[in-house]
Every structure is written in structure tokens, then in C-alpha cells.
Amino acid sequence: MVPGCAIPVRTRLSVCRLSFGFFLGLLATQPMAAAEDGFVDSSGRRVAVPPRVERVFPAGPPASVVVYMLAPDKLLGWTRAISPPERSFLPERYADLPELGRLTGRGNTVNLEAVVGARPDIVLDVGSTAPTFVSLADRVQEQTRVPTVLIDGHLADSAKTFRSVGTLLGVSEQGERLARYAEETLAEVRRRMESVPADRRLTVYMARGPRGLQTGIRGSINVEALDVAGVRNVAAEALGNGGIVNVSMEQVLAWQPNAIVTIDRGFYDSVWTDPLWQGVKAVRERRVYLSPGLPFTWIGSPPSANRLLGLRWLGKVLYPDLFPEDLREETRRFYALFYHREPDDRQIDELLAGSRPPG
Length: 359
Fold this sequence. Notes:
Oligomer: single chain
Shape: globular
CATH superfamily of the largest domain: Nitrogenase molybdenum iron protein domain
Strand content: 5-15%
């Protein structure tokens, strides 16, 4: 039996399809070059990384975004190919990077043969450091002989994420620049929201899916932007802890959120005329907002540092008096710094079109 085949379905890797002899042959070509003291990742694991890291295999979408922001020339590829609408927001040479698949999260699609064949210096996962992901990182490293590093990717800890990965990749100056932006954004959003009494903060429903009846509750990284922005997640208040859940129209009608935010264009386009949603206060008052989504959504997916700009966007659409700044200029600044390409006026118009109700 190939080592690792008895892996639970949730985190099973396609390595089980490899022949044992072939797998050993791949390992023989992949010695683990070690830095003298190793790198301590967010889970406390000491990983023997090479002295210079030049080729990074991202384990999931959040890692690919963070590596791209910090050191795009070190990124081996994307977990999924960049789509035509996304391409115009990235320099062509990076938009052309290949699709690698994903090692972690829902629907992992890459096998360990592909990881070894890409000849990475490290595998990097950015996100949760829960035991499941620590175990997965250990397993990938053991079976590929590629150093595998796990970094905390929570939005509130973005500055620490940038500094840690910047050090790991040998780009500490860029890591510090991005960390300072994260600290500035988080502190400013918190400071302004503190002026709003907790019992007067808007209740917000995060609508996911084409019908808008999927959402995230407390503990879900997919709605973390709402928590960090300091607004009240009406579904979390009603349903407590968990992750992504399906809800009924009756529940949304009972909650009567002050505002709805969504990352789904289909739902946003249809909600204005869907008779089921006309009884929701936020729809009647035309307070439904579509998060900008190119090249990555500003408040949801992937759950990575792309959401920093989303915090400012949430403040602008929900509390315009508290956030009077020109979001267009902030968008230019963020995209130039984080995505290495400044959008033009037409692109910014496209990005912000969902910040105002149609008509």
C-alpha cells in the first residue's frame, strides 16, 4: 500500500493512485535542503526550508494570493486558471501562470506526483492552523520530501501573515509594506466603527449562491470580513457557531437585515425583482450590495488578504458618513501595491458598479 492511502475522505490526496515504486523514485530526486535552524510556522512546526526559496507551490487559493502579492515571480501557478475577466487586472506574465489544482480545502484536485514534479522549494498553505491542516501539512511533507509550511491566514492577523511569509520568501521589505497597509486599514476601520454603539450597528446578511440562501455564521472564515468590519452578522446572531450553512427564505424574512452583501452576481441581478425577496427590508430600501470581484472578491473568496480592501468597501457602503474617502483612489492604491497593476477608470467603474443599487 502506498503510504497515506488510508486518509479520511475530507483530506484524502490522490497519491493513492501512484505506484509505490514510482513514488519512491520521485522522492529520491527531492532531497529536503534545510536552512540551519529551520523556519517555525504558525502551528509551531519547525520546518527545514532551503536558505533561498524561489519556487512556491500554493496548497490552496489563499496561499496563491499571498505569494502573488509578496513575490509573484516565486509563484509556480494558481490553484485554478485565471479567468478571462480576471486577466485584465493582472500583469499578463502572471495571469498566464499554469493551473496547479489545490491540495487543501474543499475539492482538492492535485496529487502528490504533480507537487513533486513541479520541483518546488516549499509547499505553502495559508489559512487555518487547526489540527486537520497541521496533519495535512505533515503528511504532504512526509510523502513528498518538500518542506511544507502552514501560516495563519485570518484577516485580523494579516500584518503578521505578510511579515511571516515575507521573511520565509526573502522579501521582508515587501512584507513590511503590505503589513503596514494591513495594520493601517484594520486600525482605521476599528477606530471608526467604535464610534457606533453596538446596539445601533447595522444588521447584515451575507447572501451566497444564486438564490442567496447560503450564508456563513460565526467561525466561518468566508464571512470573516463582517466580523472584522464590526457589523452585525444577523445569521451568526441567530444560529451561533459553525461554517457555511443553508437557510430558508422564512428565516431571512424573520431576521429582516438592514443590509445584504453578496459576492454572487446572479443573485444581485435577480433579487430586485424576485417576489420572495420583496418582503425583506434591505431589498425594499435598496440596500443590497455586490462585492467587487476582480481579480478576487473583496469580502469572500478566496478568504485571503484580498479582503483588506473589502473592509474599506464595507465601511463605505454601510456607513458612508464614517468613510467619506474616495474609494476609487484607494482602489488604485491597493491594486498597484498588492496586485502589481493599477486599474484604469473603466475598470474601477466596473469594480464599483455593485456599490450602488441599479436604476
